[in-house]
Amino acid sequence: MRIYRVGDEGPEIQDIQHRLIELGFTLPGQEHGAFDDGLQEAVRAFQAQRNLRVDGIVGPDTWGQLVEAGFRLGDRTLYLHAPHLRGDDVRALQRKLDALGFDPGKQDGVYGRTTDTALREFQRNVGEDVDGVVGLHTIATLERMRPLDDVPGRGLVRETEELRSMRGRIQGHVIAIDPGHEAPEGGVDIHLALARAVASELARLGAKPEILRDAGENPTPSSRATMANALDATACVSLHLGEDDPESSGPTCSYFGSQATHSPGGRHLAELILDELEHELRVRGRLQRLTVAMLRETRMPAVQVEALAPASEIEATLLRVPDGTLRIGRAIAEGVRRFFED
Fold this sequence. Notes:
single chain; about 45% helix
């Protein structure tokens, strides 16, 4: 999809404004169809609320969640569908099933097979027709059970247990490496260079790295997540550059997490990679939760690594020296190794 930012105009901008107003955000100019500073601030507030990257730009992740935020449980009938249904109504269903002891997997707002299985198990247990359809009757039955929203979900507990069982050697494990976005036309593909450096080091350690795109390719984040799942990868590392802000510095490592839940495996992997990058770059970094597609839609522990902020002159220098990307690649690969072996 096209990316929308300050200065853009048209019916698409008016649609974005309308959706934000429906969600309770205040826009000084209301729905006038121009992407101004007021709309940018509203977008940033929405992104912060949804654990998205707060940049004031409406790209695929922000647009997708703007659409999903408009659905409430009961607005539509839910069932297993291709492509999968997505929305806050699905997330609410997953949360209720989880609280009642039926494991829908990651509370990601995507109605996939694991959620369908959990729903059918619930229907079987309460004596309903096991049809995998979430209509008003099934919702009413769920509500009568009065599920608590603040209990740890089975998916979170299960992933924590799986994390313990993954200890061993890195040899033979398939590691998906996502080089982020394609370089601008005529520019250097830094993401791909970093991906190749990480892959080279992982291969030396005995892992089986798989890079999710090549030069000149630019699949959507959801497509790259699907590729990682199809590889049956044990872990996924998505590589990006940091914010275009001269005052920003240090690496950022992100894992799937909303205000209600998170990925324990993703968090642990992010912590280890961040520790290695901080040691290598000799600068403090940050850990954060994100709900972007590469972290939300992958089935394995996944992290988004922003090793450098190119707007920082000191860090940008690393991209220009011969061994800069190799140093970063080694640090990231060492973090992945520790995920399995420490």
